[in-house]
Amino acid sequence: MSGNKTIDLYKGPVDPNSGYLCMWMHWRPNPDDPDPQLPGQKLSMATFIPVKPEDRCLCGSGKQFRECCRARAYWHPLCPNPDGKNFSLMAPQSVAFKVADRAIVRERLMNDVRLQCTADDADSAFWVYWGDPALDNQHGTLCFGDIELKRNRILHVTAMSDLRMQTLLALLRDVLGDEFESPKIRHEPVTVIDKKTGRHIQVQPTASAENAKRG
Predict the structure, then answer these.
(1) Residue 150 DSSP symbol
(2) What is the rounded CA–CA span in Å between residue 44 and residue 62?
(3) pTM over 0.85
(4) CB 15 within 8 Å of CB 32
(5) Could you tell me which CATH number the domain at 93-186 has?
(6) Across the strands, what pairs with 23?
(7) Model confidence over 24-78: pLDDT tens digits?
(8) How many Cα neighbours within 13 Å face the side chain of 2?
(9) pLDDT digits over 137-181, tens only?
């Protein structure tokens, strides 16, 4: 990942057929706050990862770049996996379920070192998932998903890829024990970039999967 190049999406030129657009989220303390840890700062950034046509596609399809992401009509962003070494196609998604005992669930989440609490008040408590182990760079600590526990005992989880959501649900299953309920995952539209026009468009997850299979 050391070869990543920061770009501004509104100031080209960047050839989408010569590499990947990768979206990152970082957390870091905010020294201007009375408590730098709460809520801290969240930094969203995009990088461009140049590749050769014959390189293996970073999206995980197992195909060469020229046969997979390069052949698409649109530029589908990637995001880093919690292992810090690989990537997945962005696939925004969320789950929500009710827990029986909010106090017990809050305590268990507070005590897990893989989670950083960024808000805790009467309405909700909020954590970001840092990974195991946490991965730091010059921009802060990488974030791989969000968990919110609301006052009405609803636990809400959001992630930007299938693998990230699977990782978060496995963590919750381990931490919550009998408080964990297997939820139904809700997939959101994915924002991609049309390679011909440069316009941002939205595609449904099913369409993205079909295009990925076609390469």
Answers:
(1) E
(2) 28
(3) yes
(4) no
(5) 3.30.310
(6) 46
(7) 999 999 999 899 988 999 999 999 999 999 999 999 899 999 999 999 999 999 9
(8) 0
(9) 999 999 999 999 999 999 999 999 999 999 999 999 999 988 888
Q: Tell me, what amino acid is at 52?
A: K
Structure tokens at 15: 């050839």
Residues near 175 by Cβ (< 8 Å), separated by ≥ 6? 108, 109, 112
Q: Are 109 and 115 in contact (CB under 8 A)?
A: yes
Mapped onto helix, strand or coil, the DSSP state of residue 2 is coil
Annotated domain spans of the chain? 5-90+188-214, 93-186
CA atoms lying within 13 Å on the CB side of residue 151: 3
Instruction: Report, in this order, helix, strand and coil percent for the chain, each rounded to 5.
Output: 20, 35, 45
| List of long-range contacts for 102-108, beta carbons under 8 Å, 24+ apart | 102/149, 102/151, 102/153, 104/179, 105/149, 105/155, 105/176, 105/179, 106/149, 108/175, 108/176, 108/179
Pairing of strands 146-150, 124-129: antiparallel
